[in-house]
Design brief:
This protein has strands spanning 2-7, 11-13, 18-26, 34-40, 47-53, 59-61, 69-74, 79-84, 93-100, 112-113, 117-122. By secondary structure, the protein is an all-beta fold.
């Protein structure tokens, strides 16, 4: 069993910054090597914003967050972070971390999910 817990969400003004954390526990193995941050706003589909291989350090971002968001991992603490700078109102969403065995963008490729943390950006 794998347990993911996100934290760090808050309400901020446009231009502000937040740092989200995702702490993993349980049976961490090859099925949890890849971690991604997804977000979902009301009425919208869940979209991946950043992904990382906790094994190789490879990482990637969706175009809308490139240059503003940074994903990183602290393997000693089983934690993945999402540093979000220059936040925009359109970044408002519930943010989820997910873990899985593939370096993928699709949410269907990630079997393990956290409960989410809300990010609200006001103009």
């Amino acid at each position: 069993q794998v347990h993911l817990v996100e934290s760090g969400g808050a309400s901020v003004k446009a231009g502000g910054s937040l740092r989200l954390s995702c702490v993993a526990s349980g049976q961490l193995d090859a099925k949890t090597v890849y971690v991604a941050w997804f977000r979902q706003a009301p009425g919208n589909a869940r979209e991946a914003v950043a992904r990382i291989s906790t094994y190789t350090g490879n990482l990637g971002y969706t175009d809308s967050v490139k240059g503003r968001f940074t994903i990183s991992a602290d393997n000693a603490k089983n934690t993945v972070f999402l540093q979000m700078n220059s936040l925009k109102p359109e970044d408002t969403a519930m943010y989820y971390c997910a873990a899985g065995p593939y370096y993928a963008w699709s949410h269907s490729m990630y079997p393990y999910w956290g409960q989410g943390t809300q990010v609200t950006v006001s103009s």
